[in-house]
Every structure is written in structure tokens, then in C-alpha cells.
Amino acid sequence: MRPAAGPPALDEDHHVHSTFSDDAVATLADNVRAARQRGLRVLCLADHVRASTPWVAEFAATVAALRPGSGLVLLAGVEAKILDVTGRLDLPGELPGVDRVLIADHQFPGEHGPVSPGQVRAELASGQRSAAEVIDCLLTATTAALSLVAMPQLAHLFSLLPKLGLDEADVPDPALRCLAAACCRAGARVEVNEKWACPSPRTLRACAAAGVPLVASTDSHDCATVGAYPRVRGLLGRTFAGAVP
Description:
alpha/beta
């Protein structure tokens, strides 16, 4: 059994988007400059991909070119959504130069493919789906996705639940322990995410107790917010009882 994990280092940012993502405004160089100015040591530059994304090699090469003289540990990451209950990811087949795969719950991973949160919420309201079934499906898909890639990182874990009208408190304790154990087996990291303020202290405690490494991430789409953690500090204060750096 692994020793319990402590709080993540807050001079690191493990989820930062650039203009390689179509919803971000900062370049890779902008993000590196901002991280250096904020005194960070580690920066994971991570952009959204789909199976059809053609620029992964260019992205990774650009990150590599920024490493010399940056004063940072620079990682190249890609963020891909879970597509279905088997854990299949919307990910290109080749990932040259990629250090980290961020696994994201952008849509509900249904039996036959992704389902919009609005549709699932309507099905819950009408009784077509139960909360327990939805949570079990999400956990099954997330656990399966962990085993499909090297270097996995769970991005904004459970950020989908409020969009479905559910809450992390609805996830049973045994299910959290199983997910944490799956993260250990896969060598996965779990984000403490600034943008979505998740996962909850309860989930973080389950992961930490299982020895899962926790990493701080802003999920920044603008270099102005790289490494800034007001919400993460609050989450960690409630998780680790004053042991926040």
C-alpha cells in the first residue's frame, strides 16, 4: 500500500491551455513567461484534442523548443474527453512528444457515445435514468479510461456532476475508494482544479489516503491566471486541515 499523499505544490501548474486550443487566448510562450514571472517550477502545457487533431507533433515540438532557458520543468500534455462507458477517449492514435494525457468528463460517457449534460439531466428528471446509474456509468468510464493511456491525469474530476444536477456527495464512499485504487494502479495524477473548484475535499481525502499524487492546476485559458490558486487554496485548506503550503 502506498503512503498517504500530501497537498500538491502550489508553485506548479499542471493544466494550462494555449491558442492550440480554440477557446484559449494565450500562446505557449505567453504561458511560459507568465509562469516564470509567478515563480512556478513546473508547468504542464495542455491543449484540447480530438481523434482528428493533426497538430500534436507541432505542439510538442513547440513546447520542446521553449524548454532551454525557461527555468521551468515544461511538460507537453493533451486533454481528451471520455467518449463512452468503455473509457474510450477522443484522442489521436499517435502522441509524439507528449508527456501527459489529461482525461476529461466534458460530456456524459453513455453506452453508445457521449451524451450532452442537458439530455442526461432531462432523463434524470423524467425517471429514464437514476442518479445511481449515472454515477456508476461515469465511474466505470473514468476507471476504464485510466488503463488506456500512459501518463494519465484526471482533469477536473467530477466537474460534470453539477451540470447533471448531481453532487459529489452522491458518490458512495466505496466507489471513491475503488476509483482511488484504480488511479494508483494506473500511476495517475488527480488535479485539484481552480477553474471548476473540484474535486471536493472528500474526494481529495480518498485519493490522498490511497497515495494518489495530487497536482494543482488552474485550467487556465489566459496567461493572466497561470499559477493563481484562490479556490484551490480553499479546497486544500478544507482537505488537509492547515497543511497547505
